[in-house]
Design brief:
By secondary structure, the protein is of the alpha+beta class. It has a single domain, classed as q2cbj1_9rhob like domain (Jelly Rolls, Sandwich). Helices cover 27% and strands 19% of the residues.
């Protein structure tokens, strides 16, 4: 049974950030209700609808384990290309404030991704997001992941599968079925979780597509997974505000300043 705490967060307050951080430390993650207000949620879905509809299933360009990325899953990157709504979500004060506090300094986006899990998709293999940097053997958590529900997440339609407390486990420990929970949440809510927690995309046994938006935040000195200069249009990057440019690792001294 999922024991993570749902916290209503209409505004960001230091006391609530401390409460969320305590849940991250204890359980490895927390469900935040009302992460996007209804207007921002509707604007986001409209901004992304056509782009995700035009993509084929299993559209990952990485030949590494198509089944892991999803045979009936669509993934969309370069999210800032889809309008200012996505910039607002990237700059959301809750994860950015929390990540700066947890990592004690400047942060950048590791990657941004829209994931659509279609009917008939099977449950993804369990993994932890921080495995991408596993060769560095860092002794502390260095990734704050945010999975935002653009549609309702249910156990039947592919809600994120999670193992509360597994962020404290040795890397070779496997989860028993009794230790697994499901991050069921209403559209507009978000799952904030440690880069060290075991989780996976859920299987979809319904006729509907489950839509989720992901952003990962890491210390600014760590190399991100996504290269925004490659995944975005030059005119998009040039039009971004200072906060978003900093989160994408762009600077006035860098290449993008001259595009």
């Amino acid at each position: 049974m999922l024991v993570w705490m749902s916290i209503e967060l209409p505004k960001v307050h230091v006391s609530r950030i401390d409460q969320i951080e305590a849940m991250l430390d204890e359980h490895g993650g927390v469900i935040v209700e009302g992460y996007l207000n209804s207007t921002l949620l509707d604007e986001t879905r409209k901004a992304l609808a056509a782009a995700i509809a035009d993509l084929p299933w299993c559209n990952t360009t990485n030949a590494y384990e198509d089944e892991f990325f999803g045979l009936k899953t669509k993934r969309l990157h370069g999210l800032m290309d889809y309008g200012p709504t996505l910039e607002k979500i990237l700059n959301h004060p809750l994860p950015t404030t929390l990540a700066r506090k947890r990592f004690d300094g400047d942060i950048i986006m590791s990657t941004g991704e829209l994931m659509a899990i279609g009917p008939g998709e099977s449950r993804q293999r369990m993994h932890w997001d921080g495995v991408s940097w596993s060769r560095s053997n860092l002794p502390f958590d260095f990734l704050l992941s945010v999975n935002i529900a653009l549609t309702d997440f249910t156990q039947a339609n592919g809600a994120t599968v999670v193992v509360p407390g597994s962020h404290r486990w040795p890397r070779d420990r496997k989860a028993a079925e009794s230790e697994i929970g499901y991050a069921e949440m209403a559209a507009g809510s978000a799952l904030l979780y440690s880069g060290r927690i075991l989780h996976s995309g859920g299987g979809n046994r319904t006729d509907d597509t489950r839509m989720g938006l992901y952003f990962g935040y890491i210390p600014a000195w760590l190399r991100p997974l996504e290269n925004p200069v490659q995944t975005h249009k030059a005119e998009t990057l040039a039009a971004l505000g200072d906060d978003a440019r900093a989160l994408l690792g762009l600077s006035e001294e860098g290449f993008v300043a001259y595009l």
